[in-house]
């Protein structure tokens, strides 16, 4: 069954979700306040890098099943409204900034004159959905006939299309005292995945909100756990990769997200654990999440560690020394540089006076916008040419597949810090490089 669907916010989440909804057969309008973004999407182009998304957007813009606008009134008649706007960290605080979500509700609710369902997808502090549900009923001409549920999103950048079309689970939070038609409409929206047996969990609003932040807190904890062990490996000469393989064979532990290195960044994990801690404080249970302070601290120490390693490799004299930083995105297959460990390391070395040359296959534009004073190279070889140190900060395939023999010919000194433990250490060593991994016996 085809529904009329709107998606508020057309960033990494919203544009991907809108395209996914069109692919599932729904009639979709994406709404954003960023006129330039809307104009690009309306031409069938994608203003950011997400594999598979340009094909989907151009296909459905061409069929007319997917439209984009800055005018919320064009979305007023939708059967289901999704909210996918940003919930960034507040400046100077760890709490989430909810002003964009609030603005969507305040703009949309007065337009709702008939029974409608709103599904929030943005990641929000627990308690937000109940507050918004009450506000929407107060502001909407249709009043109690407007139902708001929370349907958190778990997609990973770089795999956004796949995760949207074939999610590993669907979670729907509803107000059990005011269920309305939320579940019925969500079952129609996601009929394809539910029909394939995808777990569909219906919970209360608070549980759904908490599922999302708990999942991200767990992933962040897993990464910081292995990075803490990497610190011990460095102190003892043990190898964290062999260790991760060994513990990962235990199915209760699992090998995924045990990649030691520069740690986590991006527009989700760092700000989500901080917002979660802030919310726990507001709820008077800050001790419950005290461990997340350490998760954050371990993570930030990884960046310090790489900067310290770089200084050490250069004999403590960083000023004017040429360093190649390969990678600017927070992870491969993304152009996202939000809270990117790679760019943070490059920026810090730059501020220390090093002559840093950055190269990233997709994130150069965003990196230059975030750090206009950094030097950006034309390619990997250009970045490495004449440098005394190479830091691999994002594990792009291009860097993993690089020929260490060729790069040794163009570098001034053959020293590499593998900030993501992604290189073939033996091949690089055989090519004459001094190889330094993260938590590996090469220290
Ligand atoms: N990026 C991901 O992989 C991902 C995955 C799961 C959940 N999330 C969550 O989804 C939300 C969005 O994240 P994102 O990465 O897509 O952010 P983003 O910054 O890429 O996109 C947010 C968009 O919302 C738009 N916007 C702001 N105010 C608006 C308004 N009043 N009306 C319409 N549009 C408005 C902005 O212009 C922007 O285009 C966040 O809560 C995030 O935590 C993101
Ligand atoms: O073993 C690992 C795995 C990941 N990372 C880093 O962790 C960060 C986050 O990676 P990933 O989780 O793949 O990226 P996101 O696209 O930010 O996705 C996370 O955040 C999204 C937004 O909330 C959620 O929807 C996803 O489920 C959740 O994985 C990146 O900097 C990675 O380099 C590691 O350091 N080691």
TrEMBL record:
Positions contributing to NAD(+) binding: 32, 37, 87, 123, 157, 271, 338
Catalytic residues of the enzyme: 268 (nucleophile)
Biological processes annotated in GO: polysaccharide biosynthetic process; UDP-glucuronate biosynthetic process
GO molecular function term, any single one: NAD binding
Top EC group: oxidoreductase
Keyword rRNA processing among UniProt keywords: no
Gene3D superfamilies: Cytochrome c1, transmembrane anchor, C-terminal (1.20.5.100), NAD(P)-binding Rossmann-like Domain (3.40.50.720)
Key words, A-Z: NAD, Oxidoreductase
Domain UDP-glucose/GDP-mannose dehydrogenase C-terminal: 324-425
NCBIfam families hit by this protein: NDP-sugDHase
PANTHER family tied to this protein: UDP-GLUCOSE 6-DEHYDROGENASE TUAD
Protein name: UDP-glucose 6-dehydrogenase
